[in-house]
Specification:
Rossmann fold, six-stranded mixed sheet, eight-stranded mixed sheet, binds 2'-deoxy-thymidine-beta-L-rhamnose, 15 helices
Amino acid sequence: MRTSWDIFCHVVDNYGDAGVCWRLARQLAAEFDADVRLWVDDIETFNRLCASDHGGISQTAANEIDGVLVHYWSAQWQPVASADVVIEAFGCALPPAYITAMAARNVQTLWLNLEYLSAEDWVAGCHGLPSLQANGLQKYFFFPGFSPTTGGLLREARLLQTRREFQRDGVAKAQFLSRIAVQPAPDASLVSLFCYENSALASWLTAISEAERQHHILVPEGRVTKEVCAWLGLDSYTLGECYVRGRVCLQFIPFLSQHDYDRLLWCCDFNVVRGEDSFVRAQWAGRPMLWHIYPQQEDAHLVKLAAFLNLYSADLSADEKAVLMRRWQSWNSAEAPAVAGDQLFAGGLGAVRHAEQWCTSLEKQNNLAELLVQFYRNWV
Ligand code: TRH
């Protein structure tokens, strides 16, 4: 039987909230016979994630994209019937009238609070716990995570097969890079740099520009554009142009659709990623990476970072582990690089093997969308 799903997404900042919800909505519709509505309160952000594929959505009407009905979640809420499953992403508060509609429904609605991703130990204990509601509605916490006792990670069917085929196909890679006007020198290490502002960025770029290996760094337009320009000594930049300083070439590229961004991660030798969704996609890319974790008050994020590093580095030798830890911790503490320029955004065979092994170990777990569907089936 088809089930109906409503996903509510409040964009706090940046792209992660909309990025996660949009990805989940598409997967539910494509793989689980679900009727999905996505309610998003920031159309501009949403359009940047899918605009180049679909031309953008309108605020006034429902927009059908990839089998999902995307709606603008307006402050003036117009009552609608509630769905079988309701996902309140990242604790965004549902419209009160919608909660009333859920309570009035003949068939009970399953209400899930989809939480932020964390590798901390307590996550498994809290995943699936009920959150008691005065009006009799059934609400539960759903925690994504890295172990089989959590809600898993978003991963579409065939994602890894597609990725591995693409990485083996030199022509496909070259065609993709040429479509986004990227032409790295044959011996250059290709890096994507998607991160938050970092007062240490200039010192990292200087170290990389002095490395033996040539680096071609792609910078999607966004939060670090200004810092990178300052390091280059530019007042403004031209998209697509390569700015060479020492052994590094920096190139600003347009913000891509999610589909293309995946391919970019697959093409690069090393990816700097941030937040939640790009962080997960970099793991599916099977390439070495550096995570710029979303900074939180009182350095709470450093605990999360350590929890992930612990898991991620478990199979590394003591030396490799030390380099990885130093690299990630110094970046996230905005410190000048603690290792040589060649090691900062380092690909290398060992690092690639480790990234692929990590990806393969995660692949054994069920993905987040199928675990959500399973949760609903068990609950009904
Ligand atoms: O943008 P982020 O920093 O998002 C967030 C938000 O800050 C959010 O509030 C916070 O809760 C969360 O992080 C943890 O990083 P993230 O999560 O990686 O989201 C970026 C999205 O943008 C992701 O879906 C990938 C996508 N993207 C593209 O589609 N094209 C691009 O060119 C790039 C660089 C990213």
